[in-house]
Design a protein that fits this description.
46% helix; Rna Polymerase Sigma Factor, Chain: A; alpha+beta; 15 helices; 10 strands; Nuclear Transport Factor 2, Chain: A; six-stranded mixed beta sheet; single chain
Length: 345
Amino acid sequence: MTQAGRELVGGAGAGLGDEEFSRLTEPFRRELLAHCYRMLGSVHDAQDIVQETYLRAWRAFDGFEGRSSLRVWLYRIATSACLTALEHRSRRVLPSGLGPSADPDVPLTVAGPDLSWVQPLPDAALWDADPAAIVAIRGSVRLALVAALQYLPARQRAVLILRDVLAWHAAEVADLLDTTTEAVNSALARARAQLARTGLSEDMLTEPSDPGDRRLLDRYAQAFQNADTVALLRVLREDITMEMPPHLTWFAGRDAVVRFLGANVFGRAGAIRMVPATANGQPALATYTPGADGLHHPHSLQVLTLTPTGVSRIVSFHDPSLFELSGLPARLDPSGRSLDRVQPN
């Protein structure tokens, strides 16, 4: 073990207690979660891999020789675990990546169990990270970018994330992936070219900063809760898209989106309740629908892309498990007051 390694663990062969190991490694947990999420496209899978990373690190820590930083060593373990996991898992997608947009007058199609969907990353999952780290993470987990990354082969994905997101040098990435700098540069060029072909727009990737975003979100939520299609038309862009995993069906264009919502989602005013949230560094709204007990229960988490000219994208995830990760209420009373708020893990 090198001198650096001895200083880190308190002496060669000394072993490491739980508290000391946690003190040294916990500061990296949330950024590792974001890294694994970018690789895997699933917050649940990312959490599992981070747990596996820390278990591997704990078992191997006596052999850590300090030749690289602790951060780099943890990233090496996490990336290796992600690549292994991806060998046995199908690519995660969103509905728009599977086929053309649909007619809003045609019944919805639900996907079979063989499809795996990209999941959102609730910002609350990063709740105890350093504020500066959260700012750095948020822009790199935008939903459109993470969805596009899933189209890259696993090693190209790793190279692109390590080089373009984490700003590692090619030699560092080559060392981590046990390859050459030439191979890293070649993989990076191919990954960038593939990403360019996905049609990512600036709207989808730029961090919203317009002070009107809050007003736009409020107007959207009010129109939705009031089941007001006229008001909704005013806040949606003409080229808006709406997706609703696990439904294969998705819609393109303001008229199609509003026609579908008016006919299939909107009922009486106030039937749907919304609670603000954030996911993937983007504004989100948790929707609640009434149950037989008179209370409102989790239905979906809408992740929105806002632009100066209106809402350009709605991805509505029909997955109530996301509410717990987001620290959202488990129920709302008839007045919309929060009940049973669940703290994120």
